[in-house]
Amino acid sequence: QVQLVESGGGLVQAGGSLRLSCAASGRTFNAHGLGWFRQAPGKEREFVASISATGGYTSYADSVKGRFTIFRDNVQNTMYLQMNSLKPEDTAVYYCAAGLGIPTMRSRPWAIEYDYWGQGTQVTVSS
């Protein structure tokens, strides 16, 4: 069992930066692939970024590639999403997720591949 808690969301102007954190409890954190998803009002949840269990493989949605960076600290049981050059279209609730059976080299996993989810943190980017 893994419990996830996101933090770091807030209001930022376009062009600014935020760093989201996802703190995990559970003894098998470093065996799980992790991901970030987001959901804007009236839209479906969409993939943002993923990272393999060891942190050696990452993938990104085209809309955030070059602006966002996903990384993890398996000692602190925490995952991060560094978001730079934010745009108003990045406004959404951001969720972190963990999945035990996701292959290491899996690119852009589907939401259904994740077993555990956090409660979400709001990111609002003003123009």
Fraction of residues in H or I helices: under 10%
Beta fraction: over 45%
Instruction: Report the uncertain regions.
Output: none
Helix vs. strand class: mainly beta
Number of helices: 0
Which H/E pattern describes the elements?
Answer: EEEEEEEEEEE
User: In total, how many beta strands?
Assistant: 11
Please describe the biggest sheet, giving its number of strands, its sense, and whether it closes into a barrel.
Answer: 7 strands, mixed
Mean pLDDT across residues = 95
C-alpha Rg (nearest Å): 13 Å
Cα separation of the termini: 40 Å
- Estimate the global geometry from the Cα principal axes: globular
Structure description:
The chain has strands spanning 3-7, 10-13, 18-25, 33-39, 46-51, 58-60, 68-73, 78-83, 92-99, 116-117, 121-126. The protein is globular and about 40 Å long. The strands form 2 sheets. Strands 2, 4, 5, 6, 9, 10 and 11 form a 7-stranded mixed beta sheet that branches. A 4-stranded antiparallel beta sheet has the order 1-3-8-7, with no helix packed on it. With 127 residues, the protein is mainly beta.
Set down the secondary structure blueprint.
Layout (H helix, E strand, L loop, with lengths): L2 E5 L2 E4 L4 E8 L7 E7 L6 E6 L6 E3 L7 E6 L4 E6 L8 E8 L16 E2 L3 E6 L1
Parallel strand pairs: 2-11
Antiparallel strand pairs: 1-3, 3-8, 4-5, 4-9, 5-6, 7-8, 9-10, 9-11
